[in-house]
Amino acid sequence: MSTKERVLVAGAGIAGLGAALALGGGEREVTILDRDPPPPELSPDEAFYRWERRGATQLRHSHAFIGRLTSLIRDRYPDLLQELLNEGTRLFGFSDALTPPLMDKYTPVAGDDDLMLLFSRRTTLELVMRRYASRLPGVSFVNNAGVRGLIARREHGRIVVDGLKVECGGHIEEMRADIVVDATGRNTAFPDWLRQEGATVREEESPCGILYFTRHYRLREGQDEPPRDGTPGGGDLGYIKYGVFIADNRHFSVTLATPEIETEMRLAVVKPEIFDAVCLELPGAERWMNPARAEPVSRVFSMGNLQNVWRHFLKDDEPQVLGFFALGDAAVRTNPLYGRGCASGVVEAHILRDTLDAMKDPAKRARLYAHEMRKAIRPYFDSMVRLDLQAIRRAEHERDPAYKPGLRARMMKSFAEDAIAPAARGDLEVGRAISRVFHMLDEPTAFLKRPEIVGRIFKVWAMSKKMKEELGFYPPKFGPERKEMLARIGLAA
Ligand SMILES: Cc1cc2nc3c(=O)[nH]c(=O)nc-3n(C[C@H](O)[C@H](O)[C@H](O)COP(=O)(O)OP(=O)(O)OC[C@H]3O[C@@H](n4cnc5c(N)ncnc54)[C@H](O)[C@@H]3O)c2cc1C
Known about the structure:
The chain has 493 residues and is of the alpha+beta class. The protein has helices spanning 14-23, 44-50, 67-76, 78-86, 100-103, 122-134, 190-196, 263-268, 272-280, 283-289, 341-358, 362-398, 407-426, 428-438, 451-462, 465-470, 482-488; strands at 5-10, 28-33, 90-92, 117-119, 139-142, 145-155, 158-168, 171-176, 179-182, 202-207, 210-219, 234-236, 241-246, 251-259, 294-296, 301-303, 307-312, 314-315, 318-319, 321-322, 324-326, 332-333. Strands 11, 12, 13, 14, 15 and 16 form a six-stranded antiparallel sheet that branches. α1 runs parallel beside α6 and α13 (407-426) packs across α14. Residues 10-16, 33-36, 55-56, 58, 61-64, 146-147, 183-186, 212, 303, 328-330, 336, 339-343, 345 line the site of flavin-adenine dinucleotide (FAD). Flavin-adenine dinucleotide is lined by residues 10-16, 33-36, 55-56, 58, 61-64, 146-147, 183-186, 212, 303, 328-330, 336, 339-343, 345.
Protein backbone atom coordinates (compact mmCIF):
# COMPACT_ATOMS: atom_id res chain seq x y z
CA MET A 1 0.00 0.00 0.00
CA SER A 2 1.23 3.50 -0.86
CA THR A 3 2.54 5.50 2.08
CA LYS A 4 2.21 8.73 0.20
CA GLU A 5 0.00 11.40 1.70
CA ARG A 6 -3.38 11.48 -0.07
CA VAL A 7 -4.69 14.95 -0.79
CA LEU A 8 -8.22 15.68 -1.97
CA VAL A 9 -8.64 19.13 -3.46
CA ALA A 10 -12.22 20.33 -3.93
CA GLY A 11 -12.28 22.75 -6.87
CA ALA A 12 -10.18 22.99 -10.03
CA GLY A 13 -10.24 26.77 -10.38
CA ILE A 14 -7.07 28.82 -10.13
CA ALA A 15 -6.40 27.93 -6.48
CA GLY A 16 -7.11 24.24 -7.09
CA LEU A 17 -4.75 24.32 -10.06
CA GLY A 18 -2.22 26.13 -7.88
CA ALA A 19 -2.54 23.21 -5.43
CA ALA A 20 -1.96 20.75 -8.27
CA LEU A 21 1.26 22.59 -9.22
CA ALA A 22 2.46 22.93 -5.64
CA LEU A 23 1.56 19.46 -4.35
CA GLY A 24 1.97 17.48 -7.56
CA GLY A 25 5.22 15.99 -8.80
CA GLY A 26 4.90 12.53 -7.29
CA GLU A 27 5.53 12.93 -3.56
CA ARG A 28 1.81 12.97 -2.80
CA GLU A 29 -1.33 11.53 -4.40
CA VAL A 30 -3.34 14.57 -5.35
CA THR A 31 -6.92 14.21 -6.57
CA ILE A 32 -8.69 17.32 -7.76
CA LEU A 33 -12.48 17.24 -7.88
CA ASP A 34 -14.62 19.67 -9.79
CA ARG A 35 -18.35 19.91 -10.29
CA ASP A 36 -17.84 21.08 -13.89
CA PRO A 37 -17.12 18.94 -16.95
CA PRO A 38 -13.50 18.73 -18.16
CA PRO A 39 -12.14 21.65 -20.16
CA PRO A 40 -12.68 21.29 -23.88
CA GLU A 41 -9.93 20.17 -26.25
CA LEU A 42 -10.11 23.45 -28.09
CA SER A 43 -7.87 26.38 -29.00
CA PRO A 44 -7.88 29.39 -26.65
CA ASP A 45 -10.24 31.28 -28.96
CA GLU A 46 -12.69 28.40 -29.31
CA ALA A 47 -12.56 27.75 -25.56
CA PHE A 48 -13.26 31.39 -24.84
CA TYR A 49 -16.43 31.24 -26.89
CA ARG A 50 -17.60 27.72 -26.06
CA TRP A 51 -16.32 26.56 -22.66
CA GLU A 52 -19.27 25.97 -20.31
CA ARG A 53 -18.02 26.74 -16.83
CA ARG A 54 -20.82 27.19 -14.36
CA GLY A 55 -18.63 26.67 -11.30
CA ALA A 56 -16.57 29.83 -11.94
CA THR A 57 -19.00 32.53 -13.01
CA GLN A 58 -16.24 35.16 -13.17
CA LEU A 59 -14.51 33.20 -15.94
CA ARG A 60 -15.46 35.68 -18.64
CA HIS A 61 -14.66 38.79 -16.67
CA SER A 62 -11.45 40.69 -17.28
CA HIS A 63 -8.53 39.23 -15.38
CA ALA A 64 -5.11 40.80 -14.81
CA PHE A 65 -2.37 38.41 -13.80
CA ILE A 66 0.16 40.27 -11.71
CA GLY A 67 3.87 39.88 -11.04
CA ARG A 68 3.50 37.82 -7.87
CA LEU A 69 1.83 35.13 -9.97
CA THR A 70 3.82 35.48 -13.19
CA SER A 71 7.20 35.47 -11.46
CA LEU A 72 6.17 32.41 -9.41
CA ILE A 73 5.21 30.58 -12.60
CA ARG A 74 8.41 31.71 -14.39
CA ASP A 75 10.68 30.63 -11.52
CA ARG A 76 9.03 27.33 -10.55
CA TYR A 77 7.24 26.21 -13.71
CA PRO A 78 9.16 27.60 -16.71
CA ASP A 79 7.60 24.98 -19.01
CA LEU A 80 4.13 26.18 -18.04
CA LEU A 81 5.12 29.75 -18.83
CA GLN A 82 6.42 28.61 -22.21
CA GLU A 83 3.15 26.79 -22.93
CA LEU A 84 1.20 29.92 -22.03
CA LEU A 85 3.34 31.99 -24.39
CA ASN A 86 2.96 29.37 -27.13
CA GLU A 87 -0.82 29.74 -26.84
CA GLY A 88 -0.69 33.46 -27.58
CA THR A 89 -0.41 35.06 -24.14
CA ARG A 90 2.39 37.56 -23.55
CA LEU A 91 4.33 39.22 -20.80
CA PHE A 92 4.26 42.97 -20.26
CA GLY A 93 7.15 44.19 -18.16
CA PHE A 94 7.95 47.27 -16.10
CA SER A 95 9.84 48.97 -18.93
CA ASP A 96 6.93 48.35 -21.35
CA ALA A 97 4.65 50.23 -18.96
CA LEU A 98 6.81 53.36 -18.58
CA THR A 99 5.26 56.72 -19.31
CA PRO A 100 6.96 59.01 -21.87
CA PRO A 101 8.70 61.13 -19.16
CA LEU A 102 10.42 58.01 -17.85
CA MET A 103 11.25 56.06 -21.01
CA ASP A 104 14.62 57.72 -21.65
CA LYS A 105 15.66 57.64 -18.01
CA TYR A 106 15.14 53.93 -17.54
CA THR A 107 17.94 51.62 -16.52
CA PRO A 108 16.97 48.17 -15.25
CA VAL A 109 17.64 47.17 -11.65
CA ALA A 110 17.36 43.81 -9.87
CA GLY A 111 13.73 42.87 -9.37
CA ASP A 112 12.35 44.77 -12.38
CA ASP A 113 11.87 41.50 -14.24
CA ASP A 114 9.37 40.42 -11.56
CA LEU A 115 7.12 43.37 -12.40
CA MET A 116 5.32 41.73 -15.29
CA LEU A 117 1.72 41.23 -16.19
CA LEU A 118 0.60 38.23 -18.17
CA PHE A 119 -1.78 39.34 -20.88
CA SER A 120 -4.26 36.49 -21.12
CA ARG A 121 -7.93 35.80 -20.97
CA ARG A 122 -8.83 33.90 -17.83
CA THR A 123 -10.10 31.05 -20.02
CA THR A 124 -6.69 30.77 -21.71
CA LEU A 125 -4.71 30.79 -18.47
CA GLU A 126 -7.00 28.23 -16.89
CA LEU A 127 -7.04 25.97 -19.93
CA VAL A 128 -3.25 25.89 -20.25
CA MET A 129 -2.67 25.53 -16.48
CA ARG A 130 -5.17 22.68 -16.36
CA ARG A 131 -3.52 20.80 -19.25
CA TYR A 132 -0.11 21.28 -17.67
CA ALA A 133 -1.32 20.19 -14.21
CA SER A 134 -3.00 17.04 -15.56
CA ARG A 135 0.37 15.84 -16.86
CA LEU A 136 2.09 16.21 -13.47
CA PRO A 137 3.01 12.93 -11.75
CA GLY A 138 0.74 12.17 -8.82
CA VAL A 139 -2.07 14.46 -9.98
CA SER A 140 -5.46 13.29 -11.22
CA PHE A 141 -8.66 15.16 -11.94
CA VAL A 142 -12.20 13.91 -11.39
CA ASN A 143 -14.73 15.94 -13.38
CA ASN A 144 -18.49 16.25 -12.91
CA ALA A 145 -17.83 15.58 -9.24
CA GLY A 146 -19.76 17.86 -6.90
CA VAL A 147 -18.54 17.84 -3.31
CA ARG A 148 -21.59 17.56 -1.06
CA GLY A 149 -20.15 17.24 2.44
CA LEU A 150 -17.34 16.27 4.77
CA ILE A 151 -16.35 13.01 6.36
CA ALA A 152 -15.27 14.09 9.82
CA ARG A 153 -14.81 12.76 13.33
CA ARG A 154 -13.94 14.17 16.76
CA GLU A 155 -10.56 13.52 18.35
CA HIS A 156 -9.43 15.14 21.62
CA GLY A 157 -12.00 17.89 21.19
CA ARG A 158 -10.94 18.72 17.64
CA ILE A 159 -12.57 17.94 14.32
CA VAL A 160 -10.52 15.70 12.07
CA VAL A 161 -11.49 15.79 8.39
CA ASP A 162 -10.99 12.38 6.80
CA GLY A 163 -12.48 12.88 3.38
CA LEU A 164 -15.35 14.14 1.29
CA LYS A 165 -18.80 13.05 0.19
CA VAL A 166 -18.82 13.47 -3.55
CA GLU A 167 -21.69 13.27 -6.00
CA CYS A 168 -20.55 11.46 -9.16
CA GLY A 169 -22.93 10.17 -11.81
CA GLY A 170 -26.03 10.56 -9.63
CA HIS A 171 -24.78 8.82 -6.49
CA ILE A 172 -22.78 9.90 -3.44
CA GLU A 173 -19.35 8.39 -3.04
CA GLU A 174 -17.15 8.65 0.05
CA MET A 175 -13.56 9.57 -0.81
CA ARG A 176 -10.96 9.33 1.96
CA ALA A 177 -7.81 11.40 2.29
CA ASP A 178 -5.13 12.53 4.72
CA ILE A 179 -5.54 16.15 3.70
CA VAL A 180 -8.65 17.90 2.39
CA VAL A 181 -8.30 21.24 0.63
CA ASP A 182 -11.20 23.60 0.03
CA ALA A 183 -10.62 25.43 -3.24
CA THR A 184 -14.29 25.73 -4.17
CA GLY A 185 -14.19 29.47 -4.50
CA ARG A 186 -16.35 32.35 -3.40
CA ASN A 187 -19.51 30.33 -2.69
CA THR A 188 -17.82 27.61 -0.65
CA ALA A 189 -20.12 25.49 1.51
CA PHE A 190 -17.25 24.20 3.67
CA PRO A 191 -17.63 26.82 6.44
CA ASP A 192 -21.24 25.72 6.95
CA TRP A 193 -20.28 22.05 6.91
CA LEU A 194 -17.55 22.76 9.48
CA ARG A 195 -20.02 24.69 11.63
CA GLN A 196 -22.37 21.70 11.51
CA GLU A 197 -19.49 19.67 12.95
CA GLY A 198 -19.18 22.20 15.78
CA ALA A 199 -16.39 24.47 14.53
CA THR A 200 -16.47 28.24 14.74
CA VAL A 201 -15.62 29.79 11.39
CA ARG A 202 -15.54 33.54 11.81
CA GLU A 203 -15.97 35.67 8.69
CA GLU A 204 -14.87 39.28 8.37
CA GLU A 205 -16.77 41.00 5.59
CA SER A 206 -16.46 44.42 4.07
CA PRO A 207 -18.12 45.69 0.89
CA CYS A 208 -16.17 46.34 -2.30
CA GLY A 209 -18.95 48.81 -3.11
CA ILE A 210 -18.88 48.20 -6.87
CA LEU A 211 -20.52 46.19 -9.61
CA TYR A 212 -18.44 44.78 -12.44
CA PHE A 213 -19.29 45.01 -16.15
CA THR A 214 -17.03 43.48 -18.80
CA ARG A 215 -17.14 43.35 -22.56
CA HIS A 216 -14.58 41.64 -24.80
CA TYR A 217 -13.27 42.94 -28.11
CA ARG A 218 -10.92 41.78 -30.86
CA LEU A 219 -8.62 43.96 -32.92
CA ARG A 220 -9.84 44.11 -36.49
CA GLU A 221 -7.82 42.57 -39.28
CA GLY A 222 -4.93 44.89 -40.12
CA GLN A 223 -5.33 46.96 -36.95
CA ASP A 224 -2.71 47.21 -34.23
CA GLU A 225 -2.90 48.09 -30.57
CA PRO A 226 -2.87 51.85 -29.96
CA PRO A 227 0.60 53.37 -29.40
CA ARG A 228 1.91 53.70 -25.86
CA ASP A 229 1.84 57.45 -25.41
CA GLY A 230 1.20 57.61 -21.67
CA THR A 231 -2.60 57.46 -21.88
CA PRO A 232 -3.48 55.24 -18.93
CA GLY A 233 -5.37 52.05 -19.64
CA GLY A 234 -7.49 52.59 -16.55
CA GLY A 235 -8.80 55.35 -14.37
CA ASP A 236 -11.11 56.30 -11.56
CA LEU A 237 -13.68 59.04 -12.10
CA GLY A 238 -15.40 58.50 -8.76
CA TYR A 239 -18.76 57.67 -10.33
CA ILE A 240 -17.15 54.99 -12.50
CA LYS A 241 -13.83 53.18 -12.74
CA TYR A 242 -12.59 51.66 -15.97
CA GLY A 243 -9.81 49.41 -17.13
CA VAL A 244 -8.61 48.00 -20.44
CA PHE A 245 -7.32 44.45 -19.99
CA ILE A 246 -5.10 43.36 -22.84
CA ALA A 247 -5.38 39.62 -23.40
CA ASP A 248 -4.12 36.92 -25.76
CA ASN A 249 -4.53 36.42 -29.49
CA ARG A 250 -5.56 39.99 -30.37
CA HIS A 251 -8.33 40.07 -27.76
CA PHE A 252 -8.83 42.57 -24.99
CA SER A 253 -11.66 43.53 -22.68
CA VAL A 254 -12.91 46.66 -21.04
CA THR A 255 -14.31 46.58 -17.54
CA LEU A 256 -16.49 49.32 -16.10
CA ALA A 257 -16.95 49.22 -12.34
CA THR A 258 -19.81 51.30 -11.08
CA PRO A 259 -20.39 52.14 -7.43
CA GLU A 260 -23.38 50.22 -6.10
CA ILE A 261 -25.20 53.50 -5.44
CA GLU A 262 -24.88 54.64 -9.09
CA THR A 263 -28.27 53.15 -9.87
CA GLU A 264 -28.92 54.83 -13.25
CA MET A 265 -25.50 53.97 -14.57
CA ARG A 266 -25.41 50.38 -13.38
CA LEU A 267 -28.81 49.59 -14.82
CA ALA A 268 -27.81 51.12 -18.14
CA VAL A 269 -24.30 49.81 -18.80
CA VAL A 270 -25.40 46.23 -19.05
CA LYS A 271 -26.84 47.19 -22.45
CA PRO A 272 -24.05 46.79 -25.04
CA GLU A 273 -24.84 50.06 -26.81
CA ILE A 274 -24.69 52.04 -23.54
CA PHE A 275 -21.57 50.18 -22.43
CA ASP A 276 -19.85 51.14 -25.69
CA ALA A 277 -21.17 54.70 -25.49
CA VAL A 278 -19.63 55.10 -22.02
CA CYS A 279 -16.32 53.62 -23.21
CA LEU A 280 -16.24 55.99 -26.19
CA GLU A 281 -16.30 58.91 -23.70
CA LEU A 282 -13.26 57.56 -21.84
CA PRO A 283 -10.11 58.37 -23.85
CA GLY A 284 -8.14 55.48 -22.33
CA ALA A 285 -10.82 52.98 -23.41
CA GLU A 286 -11.91 54.67 -26.64
CA ARG A 287 -8.47 54.40 -28.23
CA TRP A 288 -8.77 50.60 -27.87
CA MET A 289 -12.41 49.76 -28.53
CA ASN A 290 -13.44 52.36 -31.10
CA PRO A 291 -15.19 50.59 -33.99
CA ALA A 292 -12.44 51.41 -36.49
CA ARG A 293 -9.88 49.52 -34.44
CA ALA A 294 -11.84 46.72 -32.76
CA GLU A 295 -15.07 44.77 -32.84
CA PRO A 296 -17.02 43.55 -29.83
CA VAL A 297 -17.02 39.77 -29.47
CA SER A 298 -19.18 39.27 -26.42
CA ARG A 299 -22.19 40.57 -24.62
CA VAL A 300 -21.71 42.65 -21.46
CA PHE A 301 -21.08 40.35 -18.51
CA SER A 302 -22.10 41.71 -15.14
CA MET A 303 -21.29 40.66 -11.61
CA GLY A 304 -22.36 41.86 -8.19
CA ASN A 305 -22.15 40.71 -4.59
CA LEU A 306 -18.48 41.68 -4.50
CA GLN A 307 -17.21 41.53 -0.95
CA ASN A 308 -13.89 41.42 0.82
CA VAL A 309 -14.09 38.33 3.01
CA TRP A 310 -11.54 36.82 5.38
CA ARG A 311 -12.35 33.47 6.98
CA HIS A 312 -10.78 32.44 10.27
CA PHE A 313 -10.43 28.71 10.76
CA LEU A 314 -8.46 28.98 14.02
CA LYS A 315 -10.31 29.98 17.19
CA ASP A 316 -8.30 32.16 19.58
CA ASP A 317 -5.24 31.06 17.62
CA GLU A 318 -6.05 27.41 18.35
CA PRO A 319 -6.66 24.90 15.54
CA GLN A 320 -10.16 23.41 15.72
CA VAL A 321 -10.10 21.45 12.46
CA LEU A 322 -7.28 19.11 11.48
CA GLY A 323 -6.39 17.79 8.04
CA PHE A 324 -8.24 20.65 6.40
CA PHE A 325 -6.99 23.77 4.61
CA ALA A 326 -8.79 26.50 2.64
CA LEU A 327 -7.22 28.19 -0.36
CA GLY A 328 -8.12 30.96 -2.77
CA ASP A 329 -11.52 32.63 -2.59
CA ALA A 330 -12.71 29.97 -0.15
CA ALA A 331 -10.25 31.48 2.35
CA VAL A 332 -10.00 35.12 1.31
CA ARG A 333 -11.99 37.14 -1.23
CA THR A 334 -10.94 40.59 -2.37
CA ASN A 335 -12.06 43.32 -4.71
CA PRO A 336 -11.40 42.10 -8.27
CA LEU A 337 -10.28 45.57 -9.29
CA TYR A 338 -6.91 44.98 -7.63
CA GLY A 339 -6.32 41.79 -9.61
CA ARG A 340 -4.87 39.91 -6.65
CA GLY A 341 -7.23 36.94 -6.27
CA CYS A 342 -5.45 34.49 -8.57
CA ALA A 343 -1.98 35.39 -7.31
CA SER A 344 -3.19 34.96 -3.72
CA GLY A 345 -4.69 31.54 -4.42
CA VAL A 346 -1.52 30.22 -6.05
CA VAL A 347 0.73 31.75 -3.37
CA GLU A 348 -1.43 30.14 -0.66
CA ALA A 349 -1.12 26.77 -2.41
CA HIS A 350 2.65 27.08 -2.16
CA ILE A 351 2.43 28.10 1.49
CA LEU A 352 0.42 24.92 1.98
CA ARG A 353 3.12 22.86 0.29
CA ASP A 354 5.83 24.40 2.49
CA THR A 355 3.66 23.73 5.55
CA LEU A 356 3.08 20.08 4.68
CA ASP A 357 6.77 19.63 3.86
CA ALA A 358 7.87 21.26 7.11
CA MET A 359 6.03 19.09 9.64
CA LYS A 360 3.65 16.17 10.14
CA ASP A 361 1.76 17.18 13.28
CA PRO A 362 -1.74 18.18 12.11
CA ALA A 363 -2.34 20.86 14.75
CA LYS A 364 1.06 22.46 14.13
CA ARG A 365 0.36 22.36 10.42
CA ALA A 366 -2.99 24.13 10.87
CA ARG A 367 -1.37 26.85 12.96
CA LEU A 368 1.64 27.32 10.68
CA TYR A 369 -0.51 27.56 7.57
CA ALA A 370 -2.81 30.16 9.14
CA HIS A 371 0.14 32.24 10.34
CA GLU A 372 2.08 32.12 7.07
CA MET A 373 -1.04 32.86 5.08
CA ARG A 374 -1.77 35.84 7.27
CA LYS A 375 1.77 37.15 6.88
CA ALA A 376 1.64 36.84 3.10
CA ILE A 377 -1.89 38.07 2.35
CA ARG A 378 -3.32 40.05 5.25
CA PRO A 379 -1.52 43.39 4.63
CA TYR A 380 -3.03 43.50 1.13
CA PHE A 381 -6.46 42.54 2.42
CA ASP A 382 -6.42 45.31 5.03
CA SER A 383 -5.30 47.86 2.47
CA MET A 384 -8.02 46.86 -0.02
CA VAL A 385 -10.70 47.06 2.67
CA ARG A 386 -9.51 50.57 3.58
CA LEU A 387 -9.34 51.76 -0.02
CA ASP A 388 -12.76 50.32 -0.82
CA LEU A 389 -14.37 52.15 2.10
CA GLN A 390 -12.71 55.39 0.90
CA ALA A 391 -14.01 54.78 -2.64
CA ILE A 392 -17.53 54.17 -1.33
CA ARG A 393 -17.41 57.54 0.49
CA ARG A 394 -16.07 59.24 -2.64
CA ALA A 395 -18.91 57.81 -4.73
CA GLU A 396 -21.46 59.12 -2.22
CA HIS A 397 -19.88 62.59 -2.40
CA GLU A 398 -20.00 62.51 -6.23
CA ARG A 399 -23.78 62.30 -6.03
CA ASP A 400 -24.14 65.04 -3.44
CA PRO A 401 -24.05 68.54 -4.97
CA ALA A 402 -23.90 70.09 -1.48
CA TYR A 403 -20.77 68.17 -0.47
CA LYS A 404 -17.84 70.40 0.50
CA PRO A 405 -14.69 68.52 1.48
CA GLY A 406 -12.98 69.55 4.73
CA LEU A 407 -9.30 70.45 4.99
CA ARG A 408 -8.17 66.89 5.75
CA ALA A 409 -10.13 65.47 2.81
CA ARG A 410 -8.67 68.17 0.51
CA MET A 411 -5.14 67.40 1.69
CA MET A 412 -5.60 63.65 1.19
CA LYS A 413 -7.01 64.24 -2.30
CA SER A 414 -4.14 66.54 -3.18
CA PHE A 415 -1.57 64.06 -1.80
CA ALA A 416 -3.08 61.30 -3.94
CA GLU A 417 -3.63 63.34 -7.10
CA ASP A 418 -0.84 65.95 -7.00
CA ALA A 419 1.88 63.97 -5.23
CA ILE A 420 1.67 60.19 -5.44
CA ALA A 421 0.06 59.83 -8.89
CA PRO A 422 2.32 62.34 -10.71
CA ALA A 423 5.39 61.06 -8.84
CA ALA A 424 4.55 57.54 -9.99
CA ARG A 425 4.40 58.79 -13.59
CA GLY A 426 7.36 61.14 -13.45
CA ASP A 427 9.88 59.65 -11.02
CA LEU A 428 11.34 56.28 -11.89
CA GLU A 429 12.11 55.28 -8.30
CA VAL A 430 8.61 56.14 -7.10
CA GLY A 431 7.05 54.42 -10.12
CA ARG A 432 9.04 51.28 -9.40
CA ALA A 433 8.18 51.32 -5.67
CA ILE A 434 4.46 51.67 -6.39
CA SER A 435 4.61 49.08 -9.12
CA ARG A 436 6.05 46.60 -6.60
CA VAL A 437 2.96 47.14 -4.44
CA PHE A 438 0.62 46.78 -7.41
CA HIS A 439 2.27 43.47 -8.32
CA MET A 440 1.99 42.24 -4.70
CA LEU A 441 5.73 42.02 -4.31
CA ASP A 442 6.01 44.66 -1.57
CA GLU A 443 3.45 45.32 1.15
CA PRO A 444 1.01 48.17 0.45
CA THR A 445 2.66 50.75 2.69
CA ALA A 446 6.26 49.62 2.03
CA PHE A 447 7.02 52.62 -0.17
CA LEU A 448 5.80 55.05 2.49
CA LYS A 449 8.30 53.54 4.94
CA ARG A 450 11.24 54.39 2.66
CA PRO A 451 12.41 57.95 3.43
CA GLU A 452 14.03 58.42 -0.01
CA ILE A 453 10.74 57.54 -1.75
CA VAL A 454 8.68 59.76 0.54
CA GLY A 455 11.17 62.59 -0.09
CA ARG A 456 10.74 62.19 -3.85
CA ILE A 457 6.94 62.20 -3.51
CA PHE A 458 7.04 65.42 -1.44
CA LYS A 459 9.37 67.00 -4.01
CA VAL A 460 6.77 66.35 -6.70
CA TRP A 461 3.99 67.65 -4.42
CA ALA A 462 5.94 70.87 -3.96
CA MET A 463 6.25 71.46 -7.73
CA SER A 464 3.70 73.77 -9.35
CA LYS A 465 0.81 72.12 -11.19
CA LYS A 466 1.87 73.92 -14.35
CA MET A 467 5.35 72.46 -14.21
CA LYS A 468 4.00 68.96 -13.60
CA GLU A 469 1.67 69.39 -16.56
CA GLU A 470 4.51 70.54 -18.82
CA LEU A 471 6.64 67.59 -17.76
CA GLY A 472 3.80 65.15 -18.54
CA PHE A 473 3.49 64.05 -14.92
CA TYR A 474 -0.33 64.20 -15.01
CA PRO A 475 -2.23 61.65 -17.08
CA PRO A 476 -4.69 62.96 -19.67
CA LYS A 477 -8.16 63.50 -18.24
CA PHE A 478 -9.81 60.13 -17.58
CA GLY A 479 -13.20 61.26 -18.91
CA PRO A 480 -16.11 63.64 -18.38
CA GLU A 481 -17.59 64.62 -15.03
CA ARG A 482 -20.57 62.57 -13.88
CA LYS A 483 -23.28 64.99 -14.96
CA GLU A 484 -21.74 65.44 -18.38
CA MET A 485 -21.33 61.68 -18.87
CA LEU A 486 -24.96 60.99 -17.94
CA ALA A 487 -26.10 63.67 -20.37
CA ARG A 488 -23.90 62.35 -23.19
CA ILE A 489 -25.22 58.81 -22.88
CA GLY A 490 -28.78 60.03 -22.59
CA LEU A 491 -29.40 59.43 -18.88
CA ALA A 492 -30.80 62.09 -16.58
CA ALA A 493 -28.54 63.05 -13.64
C1 LIG B 1 -15.56 39.84 -11.66
C2 LIG B 1 -14.26 39.31 -11.16
C3 LIG B 1 -13.07 39.72 -11.75
C4 LIG B 1 -11.84 39.26 -11.25
N1 LIG B 1 -10.67 39.73 -11.78
C5 LIG B 1 -9.49 39.27 -11.29
C6 LIG B 1 -8.26 39.70 -11.84
O1 LIG B 1 -8.20 40.58 -12.68
N2 LIG B 1 -7.12 39.12 -11.38
C7 LIG B 1 -7.13 38.19 -10.37
O2 LIG B 1 -6.07 37.70 -9.99
N3 LIG B 1 -8.28 37.80 -9.82
C8 LIG B 1 -9.45 38.31 -10.25
N4 LIG B 1 -10.62 37.89 -9.70
C9 LIG B 1 -10.57 36.95 -8.59
C10 LIG B 1 -10.34 35.55 -9.11
O3 LIG B 1 -11.26 35.24 -10.12
C11 LIG B 1 -10.46 34.60 -7.96
O4 LIG B 1 -9.72 35.09 -6.88
C12 LIG B 1 -9.97 33.23 -8.32
O5 LIG B 1 -10.69 32.68 -9.38
C13 LIG B 1 -10.05 32.33 -7.11
O6 LIG B 1 -9.74 31.06 -7.46
P1 LIG B 1 -10.44 29.85 -6.71
O7 LIG B 1 -9.83 28.64 -7.31
O8 LIG B 1 -10.41 30.08 -5.27
O9 LIG B 1 -11.97 29.93 -7.14
P2 LIG B 1 -12.60 29.71 -8.58
O10 LIG B 1 -11.63 30.08 -9.62
O11 LIG B 1 -13.91 30.39 -8.53
O12 LIG B 1 -12.80 28.14 -8.70
C14 LIG B 1 -13.64 27.43 -7.84
C15 LIG B 1 -13.78 26.03 -8.44
O13 LIG B 1 -14.48 25.21 -7.54
C16 LIG B 1 -15.43 24.44 -8.25
N5 LIG B 1 -16.50 24.10 -7.28
C17 LIG B 1 -17.31 24.95 -6.61
N6 LIG B 1 -18.11 24.28 -5.77
C18 LIG B 1 -17.79 22.96 -5.92
C19 LIG B 1 -18.27 21.77 -5.33
N7 LIG B 1 -19.21 21.76 -4.38
N8 LIG B 1 -17.71 20.60 -5.74
C20 LIG B 1 -16.75 20.56 -6.68
N9 LIG B 1 -16.27 21.65 -7.26
C21 LIG B 1 -16.77 22.85 -6.89
C22 LIG B 1 -15.88 25.33 -9.37
O14 LIG B 1 -16.42 24.60 -10.46
C23 LIG B 1 -14.56 26.02 -9.73
O15 LIG B 1 -13.86 25.27 -10.68
C24 LIG B 1 -11.84 38.34 -10.17
C25 LIG B 1 -13.03 37.92 -9.59
C26 LIG B 1 -14.23 38.42 -10.07
C27 LIG B 1 -15.49 37.98 -9.38
